[in-house]
Predict the structure of SusD/RagB family nutrient-binding outer membrane lipoprotein.
Amino acid sequence: MNNFKTILFFVMVVIFSSCEDLDINNNPNKVSETHPSLLLTNITTSAFQVKGTGAMYASRMIVQTDGESTSQFYKWDRAGFGDYNSLRQVTKMIEEAERVEDDAYIGIGYFFKAYYFYNLTLTFGDVPYAEALKGETEDLYQPKYSTQEEVFTGILTELETANSLLDGSNIISGDPIFNGDTNKWKKLINSFRLKVLLSLSKKAGSSSLNIKNEFASIYSSQSIISSSEESAKLEFVDVVDSRYTEFNSSGYGSGLYMASTFVDLLKEREDARLFAISGQTKNAKEAGLAISDFNAYAGGDPIAAYNDVNLLAAEGKVSKVNDRYTKDPTAEAHNLLSYSEVQFILAEAALKGWISGDAQTFYENGIKANYQFYNTYAKGLEEYYTEAAALKYISGAKVNLTNATTVSDKLEFIITQKYFTSFLQGGWNMYFDHLRTGYPDFPYLGSDTPPTRWIYPLDEYNNNSENVTEAISRQFGAANDGIRELTWWLK
């Protein structure tokens, strides 16, 4: 009995001591502090997902046959500021990394800030940047818009800072991309710096950014992605919430088909990547044509009336997207920035005289790396993407860079091959490359030329009217928030 009283006494002491420490004003479901590694996992898996089909309609890769796609017919209007939600998570990770004094997470946070602002400014032009994301810390809920030149300058500064912060960093956790290897993050960051600088090729004469010299300096003195194994990619696994983004997607139903622009470019070059990207037409399947028979594939005209293409599809004359993308839960890795893309970036830079490397070598490396990608992920089709197959393909008349006689012809070869690597990879990169270079040629109807931007979100007109109105007037003239206005990077 005495033992029971003693135990009861100690239990009551613990209970009352605990009650003294309990603050009933704290919400146990709202965590004010967390380790940045937990935030990094969500940030990376979100950023590295496949970006949907909108860019592929605009880039003449697919067509819609059961209605008019605004992306396909270049009739879009507004886009959203959803990337700012992602940026809030990035900002929180940086704050938590500063709290625990871990430069690696801070550096990776700066990379993702640059990544999201890069997408935002290419989409709209001027955007809130210098005053953005200060609602909670400074009660600043109506930020002014920075000019696109200021945004690009800030992006390049943040990437430079990110690279410096990762010097000598240790292995980190919560990283599904590089398994905590901060050296590979540095290579991604520096490669992305090259990508951003090349995006500004029309501004190569700008003294404020010193684009050509900065590109050459990074290339010669910094580590960049130098093999396919170092590509910045997300691998998918057959587990709930970790499967390939397009797995079981209903968006590839009865109305979505391949576009003739993309299919014909591949067929003209006898490019075997067509077999992994496109399905055979219904008629070809019924006729027993081999997978390797290029006559088994056909696309719909992206500027024809959608019902006209629908009638051809109903007759079994138009290919659908290869069903491996929707039936295989681990179809293929998604690249945020691949070794192949880096090689095409270097090929263009060498062609422009920004670096001393050989454009043809970089160009061929990019093709071979993409063939290797399909050899790895296009299950059952590996025989078409061997090293020997890549070398044979490179020797083709419309692929061999030595057959291009002028600088503009060589640029078309490079950008076209870069375009071929972009099916369900890289989001809108291929479309922005077209806006910058004019390659490859995208057909359009009448005066509906490829739009150069999106209209600002309606929320900005309702909640930040003064600043969005000022930004529009500064860029395009009063009340001229149009989709074909040229922003600074394209002038």
The radius of gyration is 26 Å. Residues 1-30 have pLDDT under 50 and may be disordered.
